[in-house]
Amino acid sequence: MIRSPLMTVMVQAVRKAGRSLVRDFGEVENLQVSLKGPANFVSNADRKAERILQEELAKARPSFGFIMEESGEIDGADESHRWIIDPLDGTTNFLHGIPLFCVSLALARDGVPVAGVIYNPVTDELFIAEKGAGAFMNDRRIRVAARRSLADSVVCCGMPHMGRGDFGQFGREYAAVAPKVAGLRRTGSAALDLAWVAAGRFDAFWERGLSPWDMAAGIVLVREAGGYVCDLDGGDKMLAKGDIIVGNETVRRDLLALLPKA
């Protein structure tokens, strides 16, 4: 595949941040045995990866603004374009030595994500998509799964964190969906979940309480892989509302019909 100059910049940035994370991930096992654990170390790894991304992107596109998980918002001279960055999605997995985490980077134009990169540096799986150009994993074209029945589908979901989110609501949604599907999964990384829907590994995904950097890159990937994306009211306000549901047209529609009843 031929990458645009924009995508080349994005891929170089996430790969460089990914190399930093992999080096730090190698130290996590050594820190697990300490009483305090690796929490502070992981926070530093997160911030270091974000600095790498910010520096690389600012060098290539100095007028673009930023929305970042750790450092917040930074306005740019170009008010139409903003990078949306999650340097380490799946922090708890990283903290426990579980190799399910990623770097997530999106470019939004006038508030709409138009390009996205999600990279798991441990497995070296690189998911990329640009509006109108399709979605790819390691240069291979990917598409959402074609299953038409919830009963045949493996669905991924997000779960509220301790002290955050509505556990009661999630429990009702889980109870409504679980008997209708072939299986429910929860990985701990919303960005990877979205990438895996785009790649056809999961048939659908839903979660509440997300931030823009959790979703922006994955939204582009799913759409460019032929999937459908909406909020949990069926609208297009995912980034503003913080909830999302994705899948192919049929499975997403049937799942969306189940969730409000919970």
Description:
With 262 residues, the chain is α+β, with helices and mostly antiparallel strands. The protein has two domains: 5-141, Fructose-1,6-Bisphosphatase, Chain A, domain 1; 150-261, D-Maltodextrin-Binding Protein, domain 2 (3-Layer(aba) Sandwich), CATH 3.40.190.80. The chain has helices at residues 5-32, 39-60, 91-95, 167-177, 190-198, 212-224, 238-241, 249-258; strands at residues 64-68, 72-74, 78-89, 102-109, 112-120, 125-130, 135-137, 140-141, 154-157, 183-185, 204-207, 228-230, 244-247. It has an eight-stranded mixed sheet, with helices on both faces. Strands 10-9-11-13-12 form a five-stranded mixed sheet, sandwiched between helices. Helix 1 (5-32) packs antiparallel against helix 2 (39-60) and helix 5 (190-198) runs parallel beside helix 6 (212-224). The longest helix is centred in the first third of the chain and has 28 residues, at 5-32. The model has no long low-confidence stretch (mean pLDDT 92).
**Strand and helix order:** HHEEEHEEEEEEHEHEHEHEH
Provide the CATH superfamily of the largest domain.
Answer: Fructose-1,6-Bisphosphatase, subunit A, domain 1
- Ends apart, CA distance between termini: 44 Å
Number of helices: 8
Helicity level: 25-40%
